[in-house]
Specification:
Elements lengths: L9 H10 L3 E4 L10 E5 L2 E7 L8 H9 L6 E3 L2 H8 L11
Parallel strand pairs: 3-4
Antiparallel strand pairs: 1-2, 2-3
Helix pairs in contact: 1-3
């Protein structure tokens, strides 16, 4: 299976998570709207989509997020988003993704 395209900040976001003690598993090759990464941190598991500051969710991603019955998928754009997520302050999904 060929790798799917990832946003240009993907590596920086993953590095930022790992530097703060999180485990990160890439899901980017799954496609079909699935989130980009699975994050483990302090006994919690989270799914995240990585987008640039101007990036938008495509239709398949929106559908995946809307129909997922687990914990809400978060959108990470910057290291500040990573910090907020790991401190429990990133609580909303941006409606206009």
């Amino acid at each position: 299976m060929s790798p799917k395209r990832v946003d240009r900040n993907h590596g920086r976001i993953v590095q930022s998570l790992r530097l703060r003690g999180a485990s990160v598993f890439s899901l980017a090759t799954l496609g079909k709207g699935a989130p980009d990464i699975c994050i483990g941190f302090q006994g919690n598991t989270m799914l995240a989509e990585i987008k640039t500051t101007t990036g938008k969710l495509n239709a398949m991603q929106r559908n995946w997020h809307d129909t997922w019955r687990g914990q809400q998928v978060v959108v990470l754009r910057t290291s500040a988003d990573v910090e907020a997520l790991l401190q429990g302050r990133l609580v909303k999904k941006l409606a206009n993704e």
